């Protein structure tokens, strides 16, 4: 007898530190869209790249996933590099119609010099 689960992690995180220092609860995390502001602050520390997937799908869910992941690795800036939409999903040889918003972002810690 085999048991399987349909739950999946709603993101993929690469290049994250092995032992991250999470932000304090309630810490401010800024979200910046590269299409609007194409330059990141110089005084940053890169903490990984995250991409949402079928587990997040909507923009609302993706935003919460990004905030949660940023908090967990100690990032106070989410720099959105790419936004895409997918209208079908391929699994086990079958295409299934499903709309999904996919977000790719870099996670950074930026010293804002005490500015909130």
How would you briefly describe this protein structure?
This protein has one helix and five strands, in the order βββαββ. A five-stranded mixed sheet has the order 1-3-5-4-2, covered by helices on one side.
Polypeptide structure, described:
- The chain has 116 residues and is mainly beta.
- The chain has one helix at 59-73, and strands at residues 11-14, 30-33, 44-52, 77-91, 94-110.
- It has a 5-stranded mixed β-sheet with strand order 1-3-5-4-2, with helices on one face.
- The radius of gyration is 16 Å and the shape is globular.
Low-confidence parts, pLDDT < 50 over ≥5 residues?
A: 1-6
The major pleated sheet works out as:
5 strands, mixed
H/E element order: EEEHEE
Radius of gyration: 16 Å
Shape: globular
Q: Termini separation (Å)?
A: 55 Å
* Total strand segments: 5
Strand content: 35-45%
Count of helical stretches: 1
What is the subunit arrangement here? single chain
Widest sheet, order of strands: 1-3-5-4-2
Q: By helix and strand content, what is the structural category? A: mainly beta
The overall pLDDT average reads 84
Helix content: 10-25%
Record keyword descriptors for this entry.
globular, 116 residues, 13% helix, five-stranded mixed β-sheet, disordered N terminus, mainly beta, 42% strand, 5 strands
